[in-house]
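Dig into what follows:

_____
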Amino acid sequence: MNTKQITIIGLGQMGTRLAELLVTKGYNVSVWNRTRAKADGIAGVKVFETLEEAIRQSPLVVICVLDYEAVNRILDGISDKSVLAGKTLINFTTADPQEAEGLEAALANVNAGYINGAIQVAPDQMGLPETTIIVSGNQAHFERSRDALAVFGGNIKYLGDRAALASAMDLATLTWLYGSYTGLIHGIVLSQKSGLSLSAYGEILGEITPGFTEFFKHQIGVVEKGDFTISQSPLSISVAATQRIHHAFRNAGAQEGFVKSISDLLQKAESLGLADQELASLVKVVE
């Protein structure tokens, strides 16, 4: 079977980039988009007027659209579902685990394989050796699509047979990302109100981040082992530190809701008797 033949459904910024990368690697790329004009500007692809005809061209079909509602509309619009039989469908549309499980079951009913994927970089960062692509789903279909996935990024993370796993990992890592980014923005505000140079703030963040990455890995290991004996950072230290942060924002006249929520969480942990455990024991409050 010619897996150098691939179909792309959805030509937003990311879908367009995926198609372009595949063309540069010698793939025969068929495309379909609800608005044809987006397809006409992509060199080297074959544009199809109907979704069914585009799907018929390839053993591998990639979907990259706005949300699962759009995915379901697209698939529901296929009048002859037999065109999906034997295909491997790779979906890079963000979903929660339950949505991924539902689509996996629906595709199994028409004898199609499903690989659920997650992309966590901008289009310009696709195709690099360090670009991480998170995927899960039937292993045979993963192996069938491995070479094409490698075009999109050099760091493929296959999590297992359940399609929902990639969505769960996507949301878990995005939880960390958005929490960190919100902290970054609050740090900018405090720096500005304190008269600090933002260039210096950015430089120091860049220098300390690798060390904190190792610290985070250690904390994950603590939770995984279930041993919360103090090993690096007692929770009590963070109770005091987050209170000081909260007070600093209040005194600076800045919005304090985010930092107060962190301080409140640590104080709740302390009230539950976790002060003399490793900081990772905070998980007991959240779970």
